[in-house]
Design a protein that fits this description.
Layout lengths: L1 H20 L8 E10 L2 E2 L5 E5 L4 E19 L4 E3 L1 E2 L6 E2 L2 E5 L18 E5 L5 E8 L3 H4 L16 E3 L3 E2 L2 E7 L42 E6 L23 E6 L7 E5 H4 L14 E2 L9 H7 L15 E4 L2
Parallel strand pairs: 1-16, 14-17
Antiparallel strand pairs: 1-2, 1-9, 3-4, 4-5, 4-8, 4-10, 4-13, 6-9, 7-8, 10-15, 11-12, 13-14, 16-18
């Protein structure tokens, strides 16, 4: 009897090991990651209003919905990280950076956006069984301080760039709070060559983030995420050393299947602790500066330390949706 039980135990362990390894879920080397941007279970789109968002339960609508993703790794059954080599499509992907664009230039997104959208990232990886995915939300330092007018797509978008010194806006989500229709709401983007207002010594302000003629009402709440503490001679010069606050959001998602999982950026989850009915209007919302009073609750949702820009805990933005 004891020998029989031992045999059953060995057989069960073998079955578990086979299940862990399992057949490859990437058999030809090609990987397509599908993303979505939601507010809870509803797609985040221009021209719609979403109720009950943030700690204040505010109604919001969007005037921009874009973010950069980089340094993507697939995690195999042994827990090893395998880099995803991005396809160089000349539009949405360049080196190890990809742009996800959920605004379609309609309604309130018409001023700073455009009709083109993108919710997928394509690349290659060795055949194998992958059970997780990891990536950064942001642009790595080596590419973050280039000249936007000469950069390759998708790093050539003025609306996602502060200046040479500050680099790119890793995420730009612009909201109008308590407005049923954002179609007539003005945006903050102005000429990149206009003079900028210095909001703090470390915040990468730009001409598009200042009050004055054409600036939005205080009902706006903007998420402009990017590196801060970037030192150079002036804003027209790139820093030679990494910024003191990189503010790269780190995501690692388990239970991933590249053939069917959708990576969801859930803004309701990110904004759960953020009082959207309150903001400092110059400019409204969080511009990533360590002294920005609108940033602490938002940075907690990103899993970042506002003082240092380093990862300080789990992020609350990205999750997996498996059919």
């Amino acid at each position: 009897m004891l020998r029989y039980l031992r045999g059953l135990l060995v057989a069960a362990m073998l079955l578990l090991a086979l299940a862990a390894c399992g057949p490859a879920n990437n058999t030809d080397g090609n990987i397509t990651l599908e993303f979505a941007m939601n507010v809870d279970d509803k797609p985040a789109v221009c021209g719609q209003t979403y109720a009950g968002v943030g700690s204040s339960g505010s109604a919001i609508s969007f005037t921009d919905l874009r973010l950069y993703v980089s340094n993507i790794r697939l995690i195999n059954a042994q827990g090893q990280e395998v880099p995803l080599e991005l396809a160089q499509d000349g539009v949405w992907q360049y080196q190890n950076v990809a742009l996800l664009d959920f605004e379609d230039g309609s309604a309130g997104c018409s001023e700073s956006g455009n009709s083109a959208t993108n919710n997928v990232i394509k690349g290659t990886a060795p055949a194998g069984r992958y059970t997780g995915v990891a990536f950064d939300m942001g642009v790595p330092f080596a590419l973050n301080h280039v000249d936007v007018t000469a950069a390759s797509s998708p790093l050539n978008i003025q609306a996602l760039w502060w200046n040479w010194q500050g680099g790119y806006k890793f995420m730009r989500v612009d909201m109008q709070v308590g407005m049923a229709d954002a179609a007539m709401a003005p945006t903050m983007e102005m000429s990149a060559t206009a003079p900028a207002m210095d909001m703090s010594a470390t915040a990468p302000t730009s001409a598009g983030e200042m009050q004055g003629e054409g600036a939005p009402s205080p009902t706006a709440w903007f998420i402009h995420m990017g590196s801060t503490g970037c030192q150079s001679n002036d804003r027209a010069a790139a820093p030679t050393a990494p910024c003191s606050n990189p503010n790269l959001v780190s995501a690692r998602l388990d239970g991933f299947d590249p053939s069917k999982s959708i990576i969801v950026a859930d803004l309701a989850s990110l904004l759960k602790g953020v009082p959207l009915d309150q903001n400092t209007p110059e400019p409204p919302g969080c511009m990533s500066g360590p002294s920005d009073p609108d940033c602490p609750a938002l940075f907690a949702g990103f899993g970042l330390d506002l003082t240092t820009g380093a990862v300080a805990g789990p992020q609350q933005l990205f999750r997996l949706q498996n059919p």
